[in-house]
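Reopening this ticket.

The earlier resolution said the output was attached, but the attachment link was broken on my side. Pasting everything inline this time so it's all in one place.
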Amino acid sequence: MKKHDKLFSEIVAGRADRNVGFAELKMQTDPRYEVIIYWSEEDGVFIAEVPELPGCMADGPTYEGAVAAVRVVIREWIDTAHELGRQIPEPKGRLLYA
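Inline output:
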């Protein structure tokens, strides 16, 4: 796990409270991927899904927590795809079906 991934995992899990600057957050992932966020009454958390990256989703107790968590998961998704030699979809931005 990379240094930044570990830091964000700790923050999202509530085990760290360090202030994170915008530059650090931006380094986490490409912000051009569309992220859909919704409340799951059943799970009692916010769910963040990235439709362009199959299976890429995360959750958090707050809206901000879900966003921070999905940024880590996007980076991990892309890193794993690179390691496996798989194609990484170009971000298209807002999708029309949402």
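Reporter confirms the inline version is readable. Helices lie at 3-12, 22-28, 63-84. Strands lie at 36-40, 45-49, 57-60.
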